[in-house]
Amino acid sequence: MLTKFETKSNRVRGLSFHSKRPWILASLHSGVIQLWDYRMGTLLDRFEEHDGPVRSVHFHNSQPLFVSGGDDSKIKVWNYKTDRCLFTLLGHLDYIRTVEFHNECPWIVTASDDRTIRIWNWLSRTCISVLTGHGHYVMCASFHPKEYLVVSASLDQTIRVWDIGALRKKTVALADDTSRLNRMNTYLLGEVDVIVKYVLEGHDRGVNWASFHPKLPLIVSGADDRQVKLWRMNDTEAWEMDTLRGHTSNVSCVIFHTRQGIIVSNSEDRSICIWDATKRTALQTFRREHDRFWILAAHPEMNLLAAGHDSGMIVFKLERERPAFSVSEDTLYYFRDQFLRSYEFSSQKEKQVCIIRRPGSIFLNQGPRTLSFIPTENAVLICSDVDGGSYELYIVPNYGARKDDVIKVKKGSGGSAVVVARNRFAVLDRSSNQVLVKNLKNETVKKSFLPIVTDAIYYAGTGNILCRAGDRVVIFDLQQRITLGELQTPSVKYVVWSGDMETVALLSKHTIVIAGKKLVHLCTLHETIRVKSGAWDENGVFIYTTLNHIKYYLPNGDSGIIRTLDVPIYLTKVSGNNIYCLDRDGKNKVIPIDSTEYMFKLALLRKRYDHVMSMIKSSKLRGQAVVAYLQQKGFAEVALHFAKDQKTRFYLALKSGNIQVAVASAKEIDEKDCWYRLGIEALRQGNTSIVEYAYQRTKNFERLSFLYLVAGNIEKLCKMLRTAEIKNDVMGQFHNALYLGDIQECAKILENAGHLPLAYITASIHGLTEIADRLAAELGDNVPSLPEGKGCSLLMPPRPLVCSGDWPMLRVMRGVSEGGLDYGGRTGHEEEEEATGADWGDDGLELVDAEGAMQNGVLEVEDAEADEENDVEGGWDLEDLELPPDIDAPKATGNAATLFVAPTPGMPVSRIWIQKSSLAGEHAAAGNFDTAMRLLNRQLGIRNFAPLKPLFMDLHMGSHTYLNAFASAPVISIAVEKGWSESASANVRGPPALVYILSQLDEKLKIAYRATTEGKFSEALRVFLNILHTIPLIVVGSRREVDEVKELIEIAKEYVVGLKMEVKRKEIKDNSLWQQELAAYFANCKLHRIHMKLVLASAMTTCFKGGNYSTAAYFARMLVESSPSEAQAKKARQVLQACGDRKDASQLNYDSRNPFVVCGATFVPLYQGQKDISCPYCRARFVPAIEGQICAVCEIAVVGADASGLLCSPTQTR
């Protein structure tokens, strides 16, 4: 059994596969219907309208409908697109056992415990026929897939086959008067629409299930007599063919496999049995430890089965469908239908090479697993799981084999076998951990012990093998007997080497690892669904398939989707725009693909800019995905040619330093933020004309004045002073006067603003005697005193280095789109001519005409306020800022080919840490607290992050160190990686070094134990809570440590609940009854043996003092049985003697004979069978009223929240 998907839930009573989509419906005993995507492993929807268990569900084969039936005697028809019940069919009087749609007619057949079968028309929503005759509960009823028949099974020990052909004729429109007359006579004579065709008797007890064969006239049934019976029928009669025995309890369900000649049955004996329908023998049995099976379902088109049991369901298939194949140069060799076949890629011709008659097996899944072809010797090596692992060697005659030729076979046992040379192959002997090198006569010529305990070997070049051991692989040289390379990777399933044997792809269930020929790690890709196959193309791109996609994987780690798939395929070769593959039936297919996207990215990666530009001109690459990719990789100037949205073009132009395009886009957008960003970028480049233009558009006069100051443009500063005066902007006037060094104007502004003392001081210091005397007269006795003996100097602005004009611009290498391509020896003049005639030249980039934006040396700026103040000294108008005639128009200086591109910053290590990590501790260490909190909320339902804030800060600070480079330079932050060494590759980054580790929690646990023993309950409670708060943020390295962490959560939870009850008990003074109950509940917690004795002694003492002698005697007996100290034992015996047969004085809410847990919030017992709700993190239990509140035990998670579970190790995501 190959399990593809499994769920945990209440008992599953009904299952149904969707015919087209990867969906399965499961109806539960709790009354819920679940819709699952079994490929992705996700719950898509829930439907809850039934009262009580839902025993059956069924998808319609073409409409977006499904039907359900339950113990509420209701049949509901649902639309899964609108997530609602369309209508309910009423008529049955008891539980409904099964429901099913007809393949063609708008019918539903239902079976019920009211001993009837009903056929409904779901279009008219009416019952069109009631089938009576069974003498007990009808357990199932189903339509024949092709004929108008119904089969039913009942606890009256019979199986009935009903003919519903007349019902079909009744619903067909009448063509002529004769037909209508015959129909009328039928009504008058009372003839029925459904008749019993056969009644099959043979079971000794009630029959639980019966179903038709999809093609043959066969019926299979299962009953409470533990037997499966096979029946055959013809036009006139039906009879029993055989009985299949093997189950040890009631047979719940039995069906025919839709694509293989087998019967599948399940039973309450916790097993699924597979039977050969032809030989009528048992092939295999699969068992579960604790779950009874109730229902089976087969996919109508695929090789998939599903089974429902007491705690959920499983989706599985019986045999792997991957064909065994091998590629040798231009030919594919593969095994299908007992033939070795070849397929020539160039001519696309297939032929049979020879017959390979493999021995039959009484077990499933014994077909060829791998196939290797040795072209020099024309030999075929096949490996399979027969007899626990074996190989078969076939030598094909050079002239080819005729149809009747028998090819001799050489066999042997071994875990796996691979070709290692032109006439040698290696076989793995798992028992001795050796590899045996054999010749084509099947003779062992060499033995080598392997460096690791190996469970499979793969080809790794001539004389080398790749050994897999759990989560690592090594390359072993058989000649020198040394290890050439080693790599940690999830369990490898398939190995695909590139054509030059320089690169290898290691395919796991959900992971692809690309490595060099010595297993030097290059990159890793994680997939959410299963990886099925892969192949290298001639350009070094790895093409691979999942269950529903063909994808590509570039050497730098980038990946993407090429196209979608309806059914899985297995790649054999990639050539140009064609993919050669095998389907699950072993048939060759050629699938055309569009390789433009990944070839474009590959050209960028390899800096083949000539290819990039030719693809830009000729291809149909479009869309935001291409723009985002180019921007991410630092090719903003290339992305500029794909972007159409003006905002996108603006930001790309800024990133690539193309000011002209940025100005054009800013004009189209005309938003203040865009002009602000444009001004910053232009200022960084030294293009003061564009800076001035941007400041004028945003009316940012303060920045404009300062720009004129540093540019030495005194004339425009004078104009800014007059402008501020017109706008009545006092601070603007004063600043501009300071910039100009006009002290007389400064004094005048201060005087007009009413600051006479400041005006007097300014005039006096700078020698303006007349103004100072006049101001002194106005101030009278309030004239401020000036300091004596201080030297005074005029306040004058510094002289600018460059007066007016643009500043020298930073020069960097030319970008891709500016002609910086290496075309292989062409002159600069030739490149310039080609760039002039290119399709994406100046006209395509919509460059702004900066000279056109200037009129008579003045930038055109729309100013609504200018017209309002034309009557005051000409009015406020930016056009008054006349520029000198010798000033050039604002445009980028230098040649167009020397426009600079800002260097792209590298990716910080902290960002690398979180790229593919789902561990909250690593996100917190990287400083991404928001993503860490989202992960904790999704995984553990944590919502109260206040207790975790100091832990977040410790993780972040502890995973970084800080260096002072220079006194005036900012501090440099350096990420600290776990396990770093000087020999480590600079391109490979390890996970962060975390300050919280599991061993620290063990030490804290010992401290908490010691505090509990010493009776320091508050301190112990604080330490246990700290453990619970720290655990979500730690990272461990193995599954064993994950189990230890989960065990630690359970320990801390028990102690926190118990200690909180003990602290509460000590606070209570006037309620003796509650004190006794809390002491009794504390004794129910799972504590360390030493603490358990102390708790039992405390409960015994408290109950004895409260007069509850029977309860005190119970605790005394438990204390005696727990190997107490001599003093404790003596005291317990004294209490037992004193209590004798005395009864309790008061009734406690405590029953020692009924198992219970204590509510972590209300401290009341929750006995077995009572409804409760739990915390998703610490698993503490609560009364239902606490749902939605913060857990009172861990104090961070929300009670009853949906959560995926604790994730604290990378091994959990493999």
TrEMBL record:
Compartments (UniProt record): Cytoplasm; Golgi apparatus membrane; Cytoplasmic vesicle, COPI-coated vesicle membrane
Domain spans labelled COPA/B second beta-propeller: 339-583
Molecular function as annotated in GO: structural molecule activity
Residue ranges the record marks as coiled coil: none
Superkingdom to which the source organism belongs: Eukaryota
One Pfam family it belongs to: COPI_C
WD repeats: 47-88, 89-121, 131-164, 200-241, 244-285
Membrane topology, as annotated: Peripheral membrane protein
Keyword Cytoplasm: yes
Keywords of the record: Cytoplasm, Cytoplasmic vesicle, ER-Golgi transport, Golgi apparatus, Membrane, Protein transport, Repeat, Transport, WD repeat
The protein's assembly and partners: Oligomeric complex that consists of at least the alpha, beta, beta', gamma, delta, epsilon and zeta subunits.
Protein name per Swiss-Prot or TrEMBL: Coatomer subunit alpha
Gene: LOC103707916
